[in-house]
Amino acid sequence: MLDYVREPEAIYARSFELIGEMPELQALPQAVRPVATRIVHACGIPEILGDLRFSDDIAAAVPAALEAGADIYCDVDTLRHGVMKRLLPAGCALHCAIGNTETAVHAKANRMTRAAAQIDLWGERLDGQIVAIGNAPTALFRLLEYVDAGGAKPAAVIALPVGFVGAAESKAELAGNPRGIPFITLLGRWGGVGMTQAAVNGLAGGLNT
């Protein structure tokens, strides 16, 4: 029989312990270490922490919004399915409309991605809510455009979209001008649904499993 750790609780605990010892993590403010730990746990690359950007209030803003009744709006279904519901308050809903007919029609009529079209359709419903974007830079660009036009402001933006076209640019725009919105993002092409799920889970529930 091969010698390896079998118990899931022990795997989690040892993983978080190893990440916690890394200098890249220890260089971060204490308040964001739980979410940073989860992000590294999701990708296995501690070096990304040098590209992590966040507002000073993000670690407090997400739990506060959730306790106040905020829902979470996700750019893709895979992100929605990866959020640990047991870490969320009762009644917190996870939304994604990328597969809806109305979204597809709006996207085609306006020559935009379905991920961006969702932002238009959600509109003022995003006021005081949490927006999580892990796949589509166009969704982040559209959200920022919406806020710039005087639209509703989310309570927090968790945006780590991945890609070669628009990912680095959209996240740099958020980090450089967050429009007064608490945020966390990862500069460059790094990112993806897995890391964004981890960020949501880390901000909602710390290192609880």
Automatic annotation (TrEMBL):
SUPFAM superfamilies: Precorrin-8X methylmutase CbiC/CobH. Keywords: Cobalamin biosynthesis, Isomerase. Residues 11-204 form the Cobalamin biosynthesis precorrin-8X methylmutase CobH/CbiC domain. InterPro entries: Cbl_synth_CobH/CbiC, CobH/CbiC_sf. Pfam families: CbiC. PANTHER family: COBALT-PRECORRIN-8 METHYLMUTASE (PTHR43588:SF1). It comes from the Bacteria. GO terms for molecular function: precorrin-8X methylmutase activity. This is Precorrin-8X methylmutase. Belongs to the CobH/CbiC family. Pathway: Cofactor biosynthesis; adenosylcobalamin biosynthesis. GO terms for biological process: cobalamin biosynthetic process. The keyword Isomerase applies.
